[in-house]
Design a protein that fits this description.
The protein has 305 residues and is an alpha/beta fold. The protein is built from eleven helices and 14 strands. Strands 3-6-7-10-11-12-13-14 form an eight-stranded parallel sheet. α2 runs parallel beside α3, α5 crosses α6 and α9 packs across α10. The radius of gyration is 18 Å and the shape is globular. Bound molecules: zinc ion.
Length: 305
């Protein structure tokens, strides 16, 4: 199975654990006007990734998109310096961050742009190419899919159909993940190519089961973000889903995106998912082998194309 990183293709057998939904460089402050919502320091990112040593994590999916601070050249530099493989996202995020071209470009032209980044790579200033490896995080801002968001979702779907690359999503308001799934499936995306994100922002097991029954991945990716849900409740819900038989379709990550999420600023850092959160899962009875499936087997299968 092949994973597409900013430094090129890797055989998945060479990769350890994966964090499938993170940000290293991102800027939400254009909308939020909050300086805490900016990550723009390459040295800081390298320092934070050094804290992953000994955790088994050597691959991270950076789901920041154009319009919200994506910086492919800097991601390549961070990957080289940290020895962490980085899978870069392609596409557009959600309404507030969409560039004007979403209104004026045809859906298939947007799909062409995504396919170009996946297959040829983003054209760096030095003329080299930096490949994207995943479509997303493609998002919905509110409790409905806006016209522009629908166009982006359809473009993402068509790019996935042409490349087999997975689509990973941002859900703002529960239960929008179901509508995202239905839209992608209307465009004939294979559910095994869909990762519905932020599922642990609202711990509604019926919502989770609806998504899982389709065959899509369900991602608990806000571990340690206790202002959204305490990890204890997040862990209980995840273990309940594993015990119902959904182990092979679940993934987990921490969506680090604020300065206050980083260890340097007193936060839990990137290691939290596979250290503290995994320990909570084990305390609730998950076996080491099951954690391995959640943090390695599943994300690598989802990311391979
Ligand atoms: Zn998100």
């Amino acid at each position: 199975m092949t994973i597409h990183t900013v430094l090129g293709e890797l055989d998945s057998s060479t990769i350890g654990r994966v964090l499938p939904h993170e940000h290293l460089l991102v800027d939400f402050s254009t909308v939020s006007r909050n300086n805490n919502h900016v990550l723009n320091d390459v040295d800081l990112a390298v320092d934070e990734l050094a804290l992953l040593q000994g955790t088994g994590v050597d691959c991270l999916v950076e789901v920041t998109l154009p319009g919200v601070g994506r910086n492919p050249e800097a991601l390549r530099a961070i990957s080289k310096r940290s020895n962490v493989s980085i899978v870069m996202g392609s596409g557009w995020y959600r309404s507030s961050y969409h560039p004007p071209e979403i209104d004026t470009a045809l859906t298939d032209a947007l799909a062409d742009q995504i396919v170009g980044e996946l297959t040829e790579g983003f054209l760096a200033k030095d003329g080299s190419r930096i490949p994207a490896g995943v479509i997303g995080e493609i998002g919905v801002q509110w409790g409905f899919i806006s016209a522009r968001e629908e166009r982006v979702f359809r473009a993402a779907a068509r790019a996935s159909n042409r490349t087999n690359a997975p689509v990973t999503t941002h859900t703002g308001i529960h239960p929008i993940g179901v509508a995202q799934l239905e839209l992608l499936m209307e465009e004939k995306v294979d559910p095994s190519r869909i990762i519905i994100g932020h599922a642990d922002m609202f711990l509604d097991l019926d919502y989770h089961r609806t998504i899982l029954r389709s065959g899509a991945y369900l991602q608990f990716d806000t571990a340690g973000r206790n202002h959204i849900n305490p990890d204890s409740r997040r862990a209980s819900a995840l273990v309940a889903l594993v015990r119902e038989g959904w182990l092979e379709q679940l993934t987990m990550s921490s969506d680090r995106c604020y300065r206050s999420d980083l260890v340097a600023f007193g936060g839990a850092g990137y290691a939290h998912t596979v250290v503290e959160f995994a320990a909570q899962l084990q305390a609730l009875g998950l076996e080491h082998a099951e954690i391995d499936i959640l943090t390695r087997t599943n994300p690598l299968r989802a990311l391979s194309w």
